[in-house]
């Protein structure tokens, strides 16, 4: 039985974060990883060359938001945002959107 190459695909963490368009450049993604701001399957990762595979859960801060995503696929190149969106599933998609949280914060500050 030969393994399915699509299931065995793995990508460097910094490259995957860049290809999925979470960071504007690989160097910015690498800096976040080296500063211990990225977790893979709840474990802090400090190596940019850490391999991510389908099913891995990534947790990291992006601006004022915490992102929790599940890797669905690895890309060969960085494509448009529509294609990049297919690389992951946002596990916090049901939560309040950033604008809603900001509005709630402003309402709370006014009290």
Topology:
Blueprint: H1 5-8, E1 10-12, H2 13-19, H3 26-34, E2 38-40, E3 43-44, E4 51-53, E5 57-62, E6 65-71, H4 81-84, E7 88-90, H5 98-110
Antiparallel strand pairs: 1-4, 2-3, 2-5, 5-6, 6-7
Helix pairs in contact: 2-3
What can you see in these coordinates?
The protein has 111 residues and is an alpha+beta fold. It has a single domain (5-110), classed as Structural Genomics Hypothetical 15.5 Kd Protein In mrcA-pckA Intergenic Region, Chain A. 33% of the residues lie in helices and 24% in strands. It contains five helices and seven strands; from the N terminus they run H-E-H-H-E-E-E-E-E-H-E-H. The strands form two sheets. The chain has a five-stranded antiparallel β-sheet with strand order 3-2-5-6-7. Strand 5 (57-62) and strand 6 (65-71) form a beta hairpin. The longest helix has 13 residues, at 98-110. The termini are far apart.
Euclidean distance between termini CA atoms: 65 Å
Strand content: 15-25%
Total domain count: 1
Tell me the number of strands.
7
Question: In sequence order, what are the helices and strands, one letter per element?
Answer: HEHHEEEEEHEH
Give a brief rundown of this model:
By secondary structure, the chain is α+β, with helices and mostly antiparallel strands. The chain has helices at about 5-10, 15-20, 25-35, 80-85, 100-110, and strands at about 10, 40, 45, 50-55, 55-60, 65-70, 90.
